[in-house]
Structures are given as C-alpha cells and as structure tokens.
Amino acid sequence: MQIKPKDWYNENYFYPNKRTYVDQFGVSREYPGPSLDWHGMTIVAGFIKEIFPDVETIYDIGCSAGSFVSRSRDIGFDTIGCDISTFAIQNCLDGAKGKVRIVDITKAQPSAQLSKQHDMVVALDLLEHIYMKDLDLALRYITESVKPGGFVFFCIATVRADNEQYVHPDENTVVPPDRTWQLVSGHVNNQYLGWWINKIESCGIKTDYEKMMKFQLMRVNNMEMKDVESWGVRNVYVGRK
C-alpha cells in the first residue's frame, strides 16, 4: 500500500464505498471513509460565526466535497474552497458548486485574487494528510491566503499516545504492515498537538488560546457535538496572523 495523494482520495476513499486493506495480522479489513457531507459542519460554522463576529470571507483548504463551504454559506459566510481530490470536487455539494476547485497546495501558491484576501482560512482534517517534506509549502499556502490580522482555524487528527506517533516519509514508500490501520485514512503525519502548535507558530501565526477555549466551551454545551472527540481540545487550533 502506497499513499499517493492525487490518487488515494478517489471514490473508494469516501463513504459509503469502502477501501479494503490488510492489517498487521494479515486480516483483510474495510475502512468506511469519511462522508462527503456532515451536518455537524453547520454547527461548527455557527460556532465560528459567534466567536469571530468580524469574519466574513473564509477559504476552506482541503474542503473535500464542500460540506463546510456549502453549510457556512447557508448562514451568511462568503466561503470558497479547494481540495486535491478530483473525485470530491467533481461530486461536490450543490451549495458548493462554482465555489470549489482542485488545488494541490504543496505545488501551488495563492493567485493574486486569493493572496491575503481572506478573514479566515479553515483546514479541517487536512494537515495530518500532508507529508512532512511538503508541510512547509502547504503551511505557506495557508498563511499567504490569510489577511494580516486574520485567523486560521484548524481541526487536526492528533495522537494520544507515543505508539500512535508516526511520520510516513513519502508517497513512494510502501506503508509498513503494522501501520496500515493508521495510514489507510491517509494520515501520514501523526503528531501531538504541541508539535503542531510549535510548527504553526514557526510560520508567524500566534496561537489564540482564548478562542480555542471558547470553541470547546460551546462544543461541550452542544448536545450533538459534546461527545465528538475529534473536535476536542487535542484537535482544534485557532491562531492569528
């Protein structure tokens, strides 16, 4: 198994299709994959609207089929998005049509129309999919897309224990059998939140712990979000340029 980003996130990656893989015990398993749409994005967009009252324009980098793009536009944001997955963009939600495009942020820089134009960049379950060798270029694309004084809002799949910490080197390296369970999701850069904070701050972003806490307080008081651990304190990052 090799994780080649332009090919990996195809129709077999997303729910309800299932990608099969063989685990370290030689057992064939199925990975259900993420849905192209999730109603929770409406809740997340609502939290952002309350915490960041001055934010109007949002660039969703790694937008998949535009779930956040569509649902945030429904509540008044001017949101656009991009993703590396041709399948996701070609099968985007109706509310995202004409607002999302295919971009490999490890190979591109924002156009003049996009550079420094956005009040906020969101990257939801994106950074852990970026190879370490490409991460600086990806973060440069992200930070260049934000206005001075604007915000970044990330949800990152982070590790909870040392045995989960793993960095896969590149798309040409075969995934070790004992890591197939982890990398079938495309998570090639598995780090603690503290590592991510240091990396993001090295790009000139200042961590906004107050807004991170506000988001978590809103989340735990929401019946639909309070038990969604993937949006917990280990995963959500807010910073200001």
Automatic annotation (TrEMBL):
Instruction: State the UniProt keywords alphabetically.
Output: Methyltransferase, Transferase
Do you know which Gene3D superfamilies this protein is assigned to?
Vaccinia Virus protein VP39
Q: Tell me which Gene Ontology terms the entry assigns under biological process.
A: methylation
Domain Methyltransferase type intervals:
60-151
Enumerate the GO terms in the molecular function aspect.
methyltransferase activity
UniProt entry tagged with the keyword Methyltransferase: yes
Write down the PANTHER family for this protein, in alphabetical order: TRANS-ACONITATE 2-METHYLTRANSFERASE-RELATED
Protein name in the entry: Putative methyltransferase
